[in-house]
């Protein structure tokens, strides 16, 4: 059974559940959550559309070698850039779970699971 997850706070934003992939161009993990994530976090990146937001998240993932990275036991990759305070979480297949600027900054990333 798949659940739909929504968050009301950037600090406690759940990462989504993967689910069905959206278009190949955006590589967003669960198409059902893209509009919600874009509405809440797109302004962090000056995104004009949900597709632009998803593409920015995908680009961040593709450039992950330039940033701090953690991978948990389930293969979820979390990426953080302390210079821009940008955080992204990605399913094992590289599709995006979430992408935003956490209010906790480096401490937020440090408290994420993975090595």
| Helical run tally | 3
Structural class: alpha+beta
Largest sheet strand order = 1-2-3-4
Note the beta-strand portion.
Answer: 15-25%
Proportion in helices: 25-40%
CATH topology of the domain at 31-110: Nuclear Transport Factor 2, Chain: A
Shape: globular
In N-to-C order, the SSE pattern is HHEEEEH
N-C termini distance: 29 Å
Overview of this structure, please?
- The protein has 115 residues and is α+β, with helices and mostly antiparallel strands.
- The protein has a domain at 31-110: Nuclear Transport Factor 2, Chain: A (Roll).
- Helices cover 26% and strands 17% of the residues.
- It is built from 3 helices and 4 strands; from the N terminus they run H-H-E-E-E-E-H.
- It has helices spanning 31-41, 50-62, 105-110, and strands at residues 68-71, 77-81, 86-90, 96-100.
- Strands 1-2-3-4 form a 4-stranded antiparallel sheet.
- Strand 2 and strand 3 (86-90) form a beta hairpin.
- The longest helix is centred in the middle third of the chain and has 13 residues, at 50-62.
- Residues 1-24 have low confidence and may be disordered.
Give a brief description.
This protein is α+β, with helices and mostly antiparallel strands and 115 residues long. It contains three helices and four strands, in the order ααββββα.
Question: Which helices and strands appear, and what pairs or packs with what?
Answer:
Blueprint: H1 31-41, H2 50-62, E1 68-71, E2 77-81, E3 86-90, E4 96-100, H3 105-110
Antiparallel strand pairs: 1-2, 2-3, 3-4
Helix pairs in contact: 1-2
């Amino acid at each position: 059974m798949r659940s739909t997850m929504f968050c009301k706070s950037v600090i406690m934003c759940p990462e989504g559940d993967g689910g069905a992939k959206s278009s190949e161009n955006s590589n967003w993990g669960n198409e059902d959550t893209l509009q919600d994530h874009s509405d809440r976090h797109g302004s962090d990146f000056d995104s004009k559309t949900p597709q632009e937001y998803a593409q920015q998240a995908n680009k961040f993932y593709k450039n992950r070698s330039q940033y701090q990275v953690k991978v948990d036991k389930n293969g979820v990759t979390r990426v953080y850039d302390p210079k821009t305070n940008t955080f992204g979480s990605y399913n094992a297949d590289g599709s995006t779970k979430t992408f935003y600027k956490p209010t906790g900054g480096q401490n937020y990333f440090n408290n994420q699971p993975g090595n």
